[in-house]
Amino acid sequence: MSRPAPSPIYTLRGAGGPLNTLHFSCNRGDTPLLFSGSGKGAIHMWNLNTRRAEKIVEGHSGSSVIWVSTLQATDTLISQGRDMQVCLWDLCEGRSEVMDSVWTGSVGFCQCSMLETSPGTRLLAFAGQQTEEIKIIELPSKTPVCTLVPDAKRGMVMCIKLWQPDSGHGPLLVAGYEDGSLLLWDVTQRSVLSQAKAHPEPIMCLTFDIKCLRGVSGSSENKLSAWTLDGQNNLQLQDYVTLVNPGVSQLCIRGDGKLLSSAGWDHRVRIFGWKKLRPLAVLQYHTDMVLSVAFSDHQDPRQRLLAAGSKDHRISLWSIYNEGGDTG
């Protein structure tokens, strides 16, 4: 007998719009936080102890917020909106002021990707003003690093992930495009190292596991495609899993590398074992498209949560610590 599907341990309401992006910050201080960005331009800071919004900030002129993150070891929030702005917020001592902003020129839905290169210095990658371009700048100086534009027509850049490999090689970036292609970029050389056709439809989302050099992407079709990087930085399509219904908004790998979660257009959240893409659970609660998923960064594994944000204006929180003992 299969176990009954679990229910959320609690839900957060009052965001006032579709929940496009979620980000946990549970390792600093006594108050675990969940940041959410809404389609109405609001960023909520949810206190997970009281289960209420501790603060609400608005800095994108009512435009949809599509990405939020926090800078490690600082009280700085970073947010991206469809007003073509990336904002840096000072949250120190209860403040909520925009310290700085970056104009991206992009009105698309491609979320930024950030990489800490040295203490206090970060690279920020974002879709640029031109359809296919990716711009990378250094923060906090905002010094331009490079612009990456493919030779062939790929259509709009849809999703990106920037990381620093262990090999000592310069930063790498993988990008998913409107034509279903994945391109692996060498940021230092501004060149494409390899490419693969992962989907017949536009790639809507991707995530990458730096530890095992393996990624996964989703599109408007009913398939997740997994791929790897070999020792020569060649993208190789590995395997795929077929979904019951088409459409994936976002993908997230848990920090321990055991679980993968997907946000579905069919209102469902799916959990897979990351090692073999084995389906483990289908979480049903939302009444509209699930737009975002995020695993918490609690140090204690027993406290770890999964959050899902939906077009129905609600965030569901799930405890899946004991879900699927064998997560292969």
Could you explain how this protein is built, in words?
Keywords: Repeat, WD repeat. Pfam families: WD40 (PF00400). InterPro entries: WD40/YVTN_repeat-like_dom_sf, WD40_repeat_dom_sf, WD40_rpt. This is Guanine nucleotide binding protein (G protein), beta polypeptide 1-like. The protein is mostly beta strands and 328 residues long. It has a domain of 118 residues: 7 Propeller (Methylamine Dehydrogenase, Chain H), CATH 2.130.10. It is 0% helix and 53% strand. It is built from no helices and 28 strands. A 4-stranded antiparallel β-sheet has the order 1-28-27-26, with no helix packed on it. Strands 2-3-4-5 form a 4-stranded antiparallel β-sheet, with no helix packed on it. A 4-stranded antiparallel β-sheet has the order 6-7-8-9, with no helix packed on it. A hairpin with a 2-residue loop joins strand 10 and strand 11. The radius of gyration is 19 Å and the shape is globular. The two termini are 20 Å apart. The mean pLDDT is 92.
Per CATH, what is the topology of the domain at 105-201 and 208-214 and 226-239? Methylamine Dehydrogenase, Chain H
Q: What class do helices, strands and sheet pairing give?
A: mainly beta
Backbone CA Rg: 19 Å
Fourth-level CATH superfamily of the domain at 105-201 and 208-214 and 226-239: YVTN repeat-like/Quinoprotein amine dehydrogenase
Distance between the termini: 20 Å
Helix content: under 10%
Shape: globular
Give the number of DSSP strands.
Answer: 28
Strand order of the largest sheet: 1-28-27-26
Count of individual helical segments = 0
Largest sheet: 4 strands, antiparallel
CATH C-level class of the domain at 105-201 and 208-214 and 226-239: Mainly Beta
The CATH architecture of the domain at 105-201 and 208-214 and 226-239 is 7 Propeller
What fraction of residues sit in β-strands?
over 45%
Q: What ranges have pLDDT less than 50 throughout 5 or more consecutive residues?
A: none
Q: Report the mean per-residue pLDDT as an integer.
A: 92
Organism: Cyclopterus lumpus
WD repeats: 283-320
Protein name: Guanine nucleotide binding protein (G protein), beta polypeptide 1-like
InterPro entries: WD40/YVTN_repeat-like_dom_sf, WD40_repeat_dom_sf, WD40_rpt
